[in-house]
Amino acid sequence: MTARKVVDGVLKQVGIVRDAIGDQIPVRGVLCFVEADWPLFGGRFTTRVVDVMRPKRPYPLVRAGGPEGVETLGDAH
After folding, report:
1. Could you tell me the pTM of the whole model?
2. Nearest to 52 by CA among 27, 28, 32
3. What 8-state DSSP symbol labels residue 50?
4. End-to-end CA distance of the chain
5. Tens digits of pLDDT across the chain (77 residues)
6. Are residues 67 and 27 in contact, defined by beta-carbon separation less than 8 angstroms?
7. Residues 6+ apart with CB under 8 A from 64
């Protein structure tokens, strides 16, 4: 599978999630490659609004505060 097809797949999934929950909650596409040969520093880039990074890099993004809390996620349906 080509890198373009992988990114296309992520963008399609992001669209499906946005359609399901609306635009009140931000949705990002992220690809993580577990056994990739990453540089010692950095190890992150963005292509077509999809972040590509090593596995430990998305954790701070997920843990970061946002406009919606857990108590309001149930109302997004």
Report:
1. 0.68
2. 32
3. E
4. 33
5. 788 899 999 999 999 999 998 887 888 898 888 777 766 666 788 889 898 888 777 777 777 766 655 555 555 44
6. no
7. none
Contact 43, 32 (CB under 8 A): no
Rounded distance between C-alpha atoms, residue 24 and residue 22, angstroms: 6
Strand order in the sheet with 50-53: 29-32, 50-53, 44-47
Phi, psi of 51 (to 5 degrees): -80, 135
Q: Are 51 and 44 in contact (CB under 8 A)?
A: yes
Q: Is the dihedral of CA 44, 29, 25, 68 positive or negative?
A: negative
